[in-house]
Write a structure and sequence with these properties.
Elements lengths: L8 E5 L5 H13 L3 E5 L15 E5 L3 E6 L4 E6 L11 E7 L5 E5 L1
Parallel strand pairs: 1-2
Antiparallel strand pairs: 2-4, 3-4, 5-6, 6-7
């Protein structure tokens, strides 16, 4: 049976601070994480923003998904899962080319 590639994920509740996302992204680099999920990210104001040379950030309202550059991951967001009743349910489909889809659900 062939070995399936591992999709390493780190998730951090950032409590809307600027320090936690950077720490989580650096931890992701050290651990070789393919994704770093930033829950409750800070609100960006003016020219103040967050980026990282190792990750591409995809920003949603309550969770930012950071995909490691060169990982080959494709991310598809599923929105309005609760039909407007609760925006706290967030689902993301993640896959690499030729692989099955992995769904990540945050409630």
């Amino acid at each position: 049976m062939p070995c399936l590639p591992i999709n390493r994920v780190i998730q951090q509740n950032c409590a809307r601070s600027y320090e936690w996302p950077i720490a989580a992204l650096e931890t992701g680099v050290e651990c070789g994480a393919d994704q770093v999920r930033l829950q409750e990210p800070p609100r960006e104001m003016g020219d103040i923003g967050i980026s990282h040379s190792a990750y591409e950030l995809k920003k949603q309202h309550r969770v930012w998904t950071s995909i490691r550059m060169g990982s080959g991951l494709v991310v598809d967001y599923q929105t309005d899962l609760s039909r407007g009743a609760d925006d706290g349910v967030i689902a993301t489909d993640v896959r690499r080319r030729g692989e099955n889809i992995t769904s990540i659900v945050i409630v």
